[in-house]
Amino acid sequence: MTTGRQCHLVRLRDKPVRDIVMQVRDWMIVELNADIVAVDKLYPDLGLQPESWAQI
Q1: DSSP secondary structure letter of residue 15
Q2: Considering the entire predicted model, what is its pTM?
Q3: Which 8-state DSSP code applies to residue 34?
């Protein structure tokens, strides 16, 4: 199943990256990874984590 959900963090290329932007990006990555781990624990057959890949 694919949800089609995508997350995009858009910034202006002609301006320096602000620290808060990098903090939000890092937070998003942590949250998305935690979601993947949680789903992988419930449904290991999906093979979302490298640890699951060896079991398939």
Answers
A1: S
A2: 0.64
A3: H
